[in-house]
Predict the 3D structure of the following.
Amino acid sequence: MEPLKDASHLYEVERRAYHAERPGFRISELQISPTQQVPWHCHSNVRDTFYVLDGALRIFLRDPKEQVHLGPGDTYTVAPRRPHLVTNGGRVSATFLVLQGIGEYDFVPLGQKPARRGPNRASPARTAPVR
């Protein structure tokens, strides 16, 4: 998909606030419920640095595959072009800051990673012996 300058319409959050913005850098605050998430995406140029204020976050990453759990006071930085999905890691709302920079911001939406079939996972139509 094409990079977006504003992706706020792609996902719902309980609350969103912008605390600072200048060319090449911004700080946003998000609050997500236990069922909400920021969908799979990446950024072409900027790093996302997450700082948890309240609750828990769970960040799923690709290339390489990784899963990070964060609590209040914890931080984690996602490098540019690294796909990530941000979810609530607890049973109550999670509030966190996202520091984004340095560079031009964009949001590149990514679909779910397609399931791969291994050599031992043939479809039922292919399990019959060949004659």
The first strand starts at residue 15 and ends at 22.
